[in-house]
Protein backbone atom coordinates (compact mmCIF):
# COMPACT_ATOMS: atom_id res chain seq x y z
CA UNK A 1 0.00 0.00 0.00
CA UNK A 2 2.79 2.43 0.94
CA UNK A 3 4.80 1.70 -2.23
CA UNK A 4 1.73 2.21 -4.42
CA UNK A 5 0.95 5.50 -2.71
CA UNK A 6 4.57 6.77 -3.08
CA UNK A 7 4.81 5.71 -6.73
CA UNK A 8 1.51 7.47 -7.54
CA UNK A 9 2.56 10.63 -5.71
CA UNK A 10 5.93 10.82 -7.51
CA UNK A 11 4.37 10.05 -10.89
CA UNK A 12 6.28 6.83 -11.45
CA UNK A 13 3.09 4.91 -12.14
CA UNK A 14 -0.29 5.96 -13.48
CA UNK A 15 -3.03 6.20 -10.87
CA UNK A 16 -5.93 3.86 -11.70
CA UNK A 17 -9.34 3.20 -10.14
CA UNK A 18 -11.43 0.02 -10.09
CA UNK A 19 -14.61 1.96 -10.91
CA UNK A 20 -15.17 5.49 -12.21
CA UNK A 21 -17.26 6.27 -9.13
CA UNK A 22 -14.14 5.83 -6.96
CA UNK A 23 -12.07 8.65 -8.51
CA UNK A 24 -13.52 11.53 -6.43
CA UNK A 25 -13.30 9.35 -3.30
CA UNK A 26 -9.70 8.10 -3.68
CA UNK A 27 -8.11 11.02 -5.54
CA UNK A 28 -6.48 12.44 -2.39
CA UNK A 29 -4.69 9.13 -1.68
CA UNK A 30 -3.73 8.32 -5.32
CA UNK A 31 -6.15 5.41 -5.67
CA UNK A 32 -5.26 3.75 -2.34
CA UNK A 33 -7.87 3.11 0.37
CA UNK A 34 -6.26 4.61 3.49
CA UNK A 35 -9.04 6.08 5.67
CA UNK A 36 -12.14 4.65 7.29
CA UNK A 37 -14.22 7.49 5.86
CA UNK A 38 -13.35 6.25 2.35
CA UNK A 39 -14.79 2.82 3.15
CA UNK A 40 -18.04 4.40 4.29
CA UNK A 41 -18.30 6.55 1.15
CA UNK A 42 -17.53 3.60 -1.17
CA UNK A 43 -20.23 1.45 0.42
CA UNK A 44 -22.67 4.38 0.16
CA UNK A 45 -21.92 5.26 -3.48
CA UNK A 46 -21.28 1.81 -4.97
CA UNK A 47 -23.66 -0.41 -2.94
CA UNK A 48 -26.26 2.12 -1.81
CA UNK A 49 -25.64 1.68 1.92
CA UNK A 50 -27.07 4.19 4.31
CA UNK A 51 -24.60 6.02 6.56
CA UNK A 52 -25.71 3.85 9.48
CA UNK A 53 -25.09 0.65 7.49
CA UNK A 54 -21.76 2.02 6.29
CA UNK A 55 -20.72 2.64 9.90
CA UNK A 56 -21.67 -0.95 10.83
CA UNK A 57 -19.42 -2.16 8.00
CA UNK A 58 -16.57 0.02 9.25
CA UNK A 59 -16.87 -1.38 12.78
CA UNK A 60 -17.01 -4.96 11.50
CA UNK A 61 -13.83 -4.44 9.47
CA UNK A 62 -12.04 -2.83 12.40
CA UNK A 63 -12.94 -5.62 14.83
CA UNK A 64 -12.61 -8.37 12.17
CA UNK A 65 -15.95 -9.94 13.06
CA UNK A 66 -16.34 -12.85 10.57
CA UNK A 67 -20.09 -13.27 11.04
CA UNK A 68 -20.92 -9.62 10.44
CA UNK A 69 -18.42 -9.43 7.56
CA UNK A 70 -20.06 -12.39 5.75
CA UNK A 71 -23.47 -10.80 6.17
CA UNK A 72 -22.26 -7.41 4.93
CA UNK A 73 -20.43 -8.96 1.96
CA UNK A 74 -23.62 -10.45 0.55
CA UNK A 75 -25.49 -7.21 1.12
CA UNK A 76 -22.72 -5.17 -0.55
CA UNK A 77 -22.61 -7.38 -3.66
CA UNK A 78 -26.39 -7.33 -4.03
CA UNK A 79 -26.51 -3.55 -3.66
CA UNK A 80 -23.71 -3.03 -6.20
CA UNK A 81 -25.48 -5.26 -8.74
CA UNK A 82 -28.64 -3.20 -8.41
CA UNK A 83 -26.64 -0.01 -9.14
CA UNK A 84 -25.03 -1.41 -12.31
CA UNK A 85 -21.78 -3.01 -11.07
CA UNK A 86 -21.21 -6.66 -12.01
CA UNK A 87 -20.71 -9.24 -9.30
CA UNK A 88 -17.02 -9.93 -10.02
CA UNK A 89 -15.94 -6.29 -9.66
CA UNK A 90 -18.11 -5.83 -6.58
CA UNK A 91 -16.54 -8.89 -4.93
CA UNK A 92 -13.02 -7.69 -5.80
CA UNK A 93 -13.76 -4.22 -4.44
CA UNK A 94 -15.08 -5.67 -1.16
CA UNK A 95 -11.86 -7.76 -0.86
CA UNK A 96 -9.82 -4.57 -1.21
CA UNK A 97 -11.87 -2.91 1.49
CA UNK A 98 -11.44 -5.92 3.76
CA UNK A 99 -7.66 -5.84 3.20
CA UNK A 100 -7.71 -2.17 4.15
CA UNK A 101 -8.92 -3.13 7.67
CA UNK A 102 -5.39 -4.30 8.49
CA UNK A 103 -3.87 -0.81 8.30
CA UNK A 104 -6.66 1.78 7.93
CA UNK A 105 -7.36 4.51 10.46
CA UNK A 106 -9.47 7.58 10.95
CA UNK A 107 -8.62 10.51 8.67
CA UNK A 108 -8.73 12.99 11.54
CA UNK A 109 -5.77 11.17 13.13
CA UNK A 110 -3.57 11.41 10.06
CA UNK A 111 -2.17 14.86 10.94
CA UNK A 112 -1.09 13.80 14.43
CA UNK A 113 0.42 10.55 13.06
CA UNK A 114 2.32 12.44 10.36
CA UNK A 115 3.74 14.98 12.84
CA UNK A 116 4.84 12.25 15.24
CA UNK A 117 6.43 10.24 12.42
CA UNK A 118 8.36 13.34 11.32
CA UNK A 119 9.71 13.93 14.83
CA UNK A 120 10.68 10.27 15.25
CA UNK A 121 12.47 10.18 11.90
CA UNK A 122 14.38 13.38 12.75
CA UNK A 123 15.59 11.97 16.10
CA UNK A 124 16.57 8.65 14.56
CA UNK A 125 18.59 10.35 11.84
CA UNK A 126 20.27 13.11 13.89
CA UNK A 127 20.42 11.67 17.44
CA UNK A 128 20.70 7.89 16.98
CA UNK A 129 22.13 7.11 20.46
CA UNK A 130 19.42 8.98 22.37
CA UNK A 131 16.74 7.56 20.09
CA UNK A 132 18.03 4.01 20.66
CA UNK A 133 18.15 4.54 24.46
CA UNK A 134 14.54 5.77 24.54
CA UNK A 135 13.31 2.98 22.28
CA UNK A 136 15.07 0.25 24.27
CA UNK A 137 13.71 1.64 27.54
CA UNK A 138 10.14 1.57 26.22
CA UNK A 139 10.46 -2.06 25.10
CA UNK A 140 12.55 -3.23 28.08
CA UNK A 141 9.90 -5.72 29.25
CA UNK A 142 9.27 -7.16 25.78
CA UNK A 143 12.09 -9.64 25.17
CA UNK A 144 11.29 -10.24 21.50
CA UNK A 145 11.21 -6.56 20.54
CA UNK A 146 14.23 -5.83 22.72
CA UNK A 147 16.29 -8.42 20.84
CA UNK A 148 15.05 -6.98 17.52
CA UNK A 149 16.04 -3.42 18.43
CA UNK A 150 19.42 -4.50 19.81
CA UNK A 151 20.14 -6.14 16.47
CA UNK A 152 19.14 -2.95 14.69
CA UNK A 153 21.52 -0.98 16.90
CA UNK A 154 24.37 -3.25 15.86
CA UNK A 155 23.42 -2.83 12.20
CA UNK A 156 23.33 0.98 12.48
CA UNK A 157 26.59 1.19 14.42
CA UNK A 158 25.09 2.25 17.78
CA UNK A 159 27.31 0.80 20.56
CA UNK A 160 25.34 -0.87 23.37
CA UNK A 161 27.41 -1.39 26.51
CA UNK A 162 26.70 -4.38 28.83
CA UNK A 163 24.99 -3.89 32.22
CA UNK A 164 27.27 -2.80 35.04
CA UNK A 165 26.43 -2.65 38.74
CA UNK A 166 28.61 0.48 39.07
CA UNK A 167 27.51 2.29 35.89
CA UNK A 168 24.00 1.20 34.84
CA UNK A 169 20.87 3.05 35.86
CA UNK A 170 17.24 1.97 35.98
CA UNK A 171 16.73 2.84 32.29
CA UNK A 172 18.99 2.76 29.25
CA UNK A 173 21.27 5.80 29.41
CA UNK A 174 23.62 7.54 26.97
CA UNK A 175 27.30 7.74 27.95
CA UNK A 176 30.34 9.01 26.03
CA UNK A 177 31.17 5.39 25.17
CA UNK A 178 27.68 4.41 23.97
CA UNK A 179 24.27 3.34 25.26
CA UNK A 180 24.55 1.71 28.69
CA UNK A 181 22.24 -1.26 29.23
CA UNK A 182 19.48 -0.53 31.77
CA UNK A 183 19.00 -2.81 34.78
CA UNK A 184 15.22 -2.81 34.25
CA UNK A 185 15.66 -4.97 31.13
CA UNK A 186 17.24 -7.84 33.13
CA UNK A 187 14.79 -10.61 33.94
CA UNK A 188 13.80 -11.26 37.58
CA UNK A 189 15.10 -7.83 38.66
CA UNK A 190 12.27 -5.60 39.84
CA UNK A 191 12.19 -1.83 40.04
CA UNK A 192 12.27 -1.88 43.86
CA UNK A 193 15.46 -3.98 43.88
CA UNK A 194 17.09 -1.64 41.36
CA UNK A 195 16.25 1.44 43.43
CA UNK A 196 17.76 -0.23 46.51
CA UNK A 197 20.96 -0.98 44.58
CA UNK A 198 21.19 2.59 43.29
CA UNK A 199 20.66 3.97 46.80
CA UNK A 200 23.54 1.88 48.17
CA UNK A 201 25.77 2.97 45.30
CA UNK A 202 24.92 6.61 45.94
CA UNK A 203 25.75 6.34 49.65
CA UNK A 204 28.94 4.28 49.62
CA UNK A 205 30.25 5.00 46.13
CA UNK A 206 31.71 2.35 43.88
CA UNK A 207 30.76 -1.22 44.82
CA UNK A 208 33.95 -3.22 45.39
CA UNK A 209 32.62 -6.66 46.34
CA UNK A 210 29.47 -8.70 46.71
CA UNK A 211 29.86 -8.96 50.49
CA UNK A 212 30.25 -5.20 50.87
CA UNK A 213 27.07 -4.69 48.86
CA UNK A 214 25.06 -7.14 51.00
CA UNK A 215 26.14 -5.33 54.18
CA UNK A 216 24.23 -2.17 53.17
CA UNK A 217 21.55 -3.54 50.85
CA UNK A 218 17.95 -4.17 51.88
CA UNK A 219 17.87 -7.95 51.47
CA UNK A 220 14.09 -7.97 51.73
CA UNK A 221 13.97 -6.40 48.26
CA UNK A 222 17.06 -8.02 46.74
CA UNK A 223 17.05 -11.78 47.15
CA UNK A 224 19.19 -14.61 45.82
CA UNK A 225 17.27 -14.78 42.55
CA UNK A 226 18.01 -11.11 41.81
CA UNK A 227 21.74 -11.61 42.45
CA UNK A 228 21.82 -14.67 40.19
CA UNK A 229 20.18 -12.76 37.34
CA UNK A 230 22.60 -9.86 37.72
CA UNK A 231 25.63 -12.16 37.74
CA UNK A 232 24.42 -14.06 34.68
CA UNK A 233 23.82 -10.80 32.82
CA UNK A 234 27.40 -9.67 33.57
CA UNK A 235 26.48 -6.78 35.87
CA UNK A 236 29.16 -7.82 38.42
CA UNK A 237 31.98 -8.23 35.90
CA UNK A 238 33.38 -4.81 36.82
CA UNK A 239 34.18 -5.84 40.42
CA UNK A 240 36.70 -8.39 39.09
CA UNK A 241 38.90 -5.60 37.70
CA UNK A 242 41.31 -5.89 40.62
CA UNK A 243 41.82 -9.59 39.97
CA UNK A 244 43.44 -11.31 37.05
CA UNK A 245 40.59 -13.76 36.56
CA UNK A 246 38.76 -13.58 33.23
CA UNK A 247 35.00 -13.09 33.14
CA UNK A 248 34.35 -16.76 32.33
CA UNK A 249 36.07 -17.77 35.59
CA UNK A 250 34.70 -14.95 37.76
CA UNK A 251 30.98 -15.49 37.21
CA UNK A 252 30.85 -19.08 38.55
CA UNK A 253 32.72 -17.97 41.67
CA UNK A 254 30.28 -15.11 42.20
CA UNK A 255 27.35 -17.51 41.80
CA UNK A 256 28.84 -19.78 44.46
CA UNK A 257 29.39 -16.85 46.86
CA UNK A 258 25.83 -15.48 46.75
CA UNK A 259 24.51 -17.56 49.65
CA UNK A 260 27.42 -16.71 51.92
CA UNK A 261 27.24 -13.01 51.03
CA UNK A 262 23.50 -12.82 51.72
CA UNK A 263 23.91 -14.64 55.04
CA UNK A 264 26.77 -12.34 56.02
CA UNK A 265 24.79 -9.22 55.14
CA UNK A 266 21.66 -10.38 56.96
CA UNK A 267 23.63 -11.27 60.11
CA UNK A 268 25.48 -7.96 60.12
CA UNK A 269 22.31 -5.93 59.63
CA UNK A 270 20.54 -7.90 62.37
CA UNK A 271 23.40 -7.28 64.80
CA UNK A 272 23.46 -3.61 63.87
CA UNK A 273 19.73 -3.32 64.44
CA UNK A 274 19.93 -4.96 67.87
CA UNK A 275 23.00 -2.99 68.91
CA UNK A 276 25.42 -5.90 68.89
CA UNK A 277 29.09 -5.94 67.87
CA UNK A 278 31.47 -8.82 67.37
CA UNK A 279 34.65 -9.05 69.42
CA UNK A 280 36.78 -8.46 66.29
CA UNK A 281 34.76 -5.52 65.02
CA UNK A 282 37.43 -2.98 65.95
CA UNK A 283 40.50 -4.96 64.81
CA UNK A 284 41.98 -3.26 61.77
CA UNK A 285 38.88 -1.20 61.12
CA UNK A 286 39.10 1.48 63.80
CA UNK A 287 39.60 4.18 61.20
CA UNK A 288 36.62 3.21 59.09
CA UNK A 289 34.10 1.77 61.57
CA UNK A 290 31.96 4.14 63.58
CA UNK A 291 31.35 3.04 67.19
CA UNK A 292 27.80 2.12 68.04
CA UNK A 293 26.51 4.29 70.82
CA UNK A 294 24.12 1.58 71.95
CA UNK A 295 26.97 -0.82 72.90
CA UNK A 296 28.30 0.09 76.36
CA UNK A 297 31.49 -1.22 78.07
CA UNK A 298 31.21 -3.71 80.92
CA UNK A 299 33.16 -3.20 84.13
CA UNK A 300 34.46 -6.43 85.59
CA UNK A 301 37.48 -8.73 85.90
CA UNK A 302 39.80 -8.39 82.95
CA UNK A 303 38.28 -5.11 81.83
CA UNK A 304 40.17 -1.78 82.18
CA UNK A 305 38.85 0.63 84.74
CA UNK A 306 36.56 3.15 83.13
CA UNK A 307 34.96 6.32 84.31
CA UNK A 308 31.97 5.85 86.54
CA UNK A 309 28.70 6.60 84.80
CA UNK A 310 25.10 5.49 84.57
CA UNK A 311 24.65 1.96 83.32
CA UNK A 312 21.79 0.85 81.09
CA UNK A 313 18.87 -0.71 82.91
CA UNK A 314 19.39 -4.03 81.12
CA UNK A 315 22.71 -4.69 82.92
CA UNK A 316 22.29 -6.32 86.35
CA UNK A 317 25.11 -6.98 88.80
CA UNK A 318 25.50 -9.13 91.88
CA UNK A 319 27.42 -8.55 95.09
CA UNK A 320 28.93 -12.02 95.40
CA UNK A 321 29.81 -12.37 91.71
CA UNK A 322 31.64 -9.60 89.84
CA UNK A 323 30.53 -11.03 86.50
CA UNK A 324 27.41 -9.32 85.14
CA UNK A 325 24.16 -11.21 84.85
CA UNK A 326 22.78 -10.15 81.49
CA UNK A 327 19.29 -10.07 80.08
CA UNK A 328 18.37 -12.23 77.09
CA UNK A 329 19.28 -9.73 74.34
CA UNK A 330 22.59 -8.68 75.95
CA UNK A 331 23.58 -12.24 76.85
CA UNK A 332 22.92 -13.44 73.31
CA UNK A 333 25.02 -10.61 71.88
CA UNK A 334 28.12 -11.51 73.93
CA UNK A 335 27.95 -15.33 73.78
CA UNK A 336 29.30 -17.04 70.71
CA UNK A 337 27.57 -19.95 69.03
CA UNK A 338 30.08 -22.44 70.43
CA UNK A 339 29.55 -21.11 73.98
CA UNK A 340 25.77 -21.42 73.72
CA UNK A 341 26.14 -24.96 72.38
CA UNK A 342 28.41 -25.92 75.28
CA UNK A 343 25.91 -24.56 77.80
CA UNK A 344 23.02 -26.41 76.23
CA UNK A 345 24.95 -29.70 76.23
CA UNK A 346 25.88 -29.29 79.93
CA UNK A 347 22.30 -28.41 80.84
CA UNK A 348 20.89 -31.49 79.16
CA UNK A 349 23.61 -33.69 80.68
CA UNK A 350 22.74 -32.41 84.15
CA UNK A 351 19.07 -33.14 83.49
CA UNK A 352 19.88 -36.75 82.57
CA UNK A 353 21.96 -37.25 85.73
CA UNK A 354 19.10 -35.85 87.81
CA UNK A 355 16.60 -38.21 86.16
CA UNK A 356 18.84 -41.21 86.84
CA UNK A 357 19.23 -40.28 90.49
CA UNK A 358 15.48 -39.76 90.82
CA UNK A 359 14.71 -43.19 89.35
CA UNK A 360 17.07 -44.84 91.81
CA UNK A 361 15.56 -42.87 94.68
CA UNK A 362 11.96 -43.93 93.89
CA UNK A 363 13.15 -47.53 93.40
CA UNK A 364 11.95 -48.01 89.81
CA UNK A 365 13.77 -49.39 86.80
CA UNK A 366 11.46 -48.04 84.17
CA UNK A 367 12.94 -46.27 81.15
CA UNK A 368 12.80 -42.51 80.83
CA UNK A 369 10.11 -42.69 78.14
CA UNK A 370 7.79 -44.77 80.35
CA UNK A 371 7.28 -42.00 82.84
CA UNK A 372 5.69 -38.76 81.81
CA UNK A 373 7.47 -35.44 81.74
CA UNK A 374 5.59 -34.10 84.75
CA UNK A 375 6.21 -37.30 86.74
CA UNK A 376 9.96 -37.07 86.07
CA UNK A 377 9.92 -33.47 87.22
CA UNK A 378 8.19 -34.46 90.49
CA UNK A 379 10.75 -37.23 91.04
CA UNK A 380 13.60 -34.77 90.64
CA UNK A 381 12.05 -32.36 93.10
CA UNK A 382 11.62 -35.09 95.78
CA UNK A 383 15.10 -36.56 95.30
CA UNK A 384 17.95 -34.68 97.12
CA UNK A 385 20.60 -36.23 94.86
CA UNK A 386 18.74 -35.10 91.73
CA UNK A 387 18.43 -31.59 93.12
CA UNK A 388 22.17 -31.44 93.83
CA UNK A 389 23.08 -32.71 90.33
CA UNK A 390 20.77 -30.29 88.58
CA UNK A 391 21.88 -27.37 90.76
CA UNK A 392 25.53 -28.13 90.03
CA UNK A 393 24.88 -28.21 86.27
CA UNK A 394 23.06 -24.89 86.38
CA UNK A 395 25.65 -23.29 88.60
CA UNK A 396 28.47 -24.45 86.29
CA UNK A 397 27.08 -23.23 82.97
CA UNK A 398 24.90 -20.24 84.03
CA UNK A 399 21.98 -21.54 82.00
CA UNK A 400 19.48 -19.23 80.36
CA UNK A 401 16.92 -17.76 82.71
CA UNK A 402 18.88 -18.25 85.98
CA UNK A 403 18.41 -15.87 88.86
CA UNK A 404 19.64 -15.53 92.41
CA UNK A 405 18.00 -17.68 95.04
CA UNK A 406 17.43 -16.88 98.69
CA UNK A 407 20.86 -18.09 99.74
CA UNK A 408 22.78 -16.57 96.81
CA UNK A 409 23.01 -19.68 94.61
CA UNK A 410 21.78 -19.69 91.00
CA UNK A 411 18.62 -21.69 90.39
CA UNK A 412 16.47 -21.82 87.27
CA UNK A 413 13.39 -19.67 87.06
CA UNK A 414 10.03 -21.25 87.65
CA UNK A 415 11.08 -23.66 90.43
CA UNK A 416 8.91 -23.95 93.46
CA UNK A 417 9.55 -22.26 96.78
CA UNK A 418 10.35 -25.67 98.28
CA UNK A 419 13.29 -26.14 95.91
CA UNK A 420 14.60 -22.60 96.33
CA UNK A 421 14.65 -23.18 100.05
Describe the structure.
The protein is mainly alpha-helical and about 425 residues long. The protein has three domains: about 110 residues, no CATH class; about 150 residues, DNA polymerase, domain 1 (Orthogonal Bundle); about 100 residues, no CATH class. It contains 18 helices and seven strands. The strands form three sheets. A three-stranded mixed β-sheet has the order 1-3-2. A two-stranded antiparallel sheet has the order 4-5. It has a two-stranded antiparallel ribbon with strand order 6-7. Strand 2 and strand 3 form a beta hairpin. The longest helix is centred in the middle third of the chain and has 28 residues. It is elongated and about 120 Å long.
Write a concise keyword list for the protein shown above.
421 residues, mainly alpha, DNA polymerase, domain 1, three-stranded mixed beta sheet, two-stranded antiparallel ribbon, 18 helices, 7 strands, 4% strand
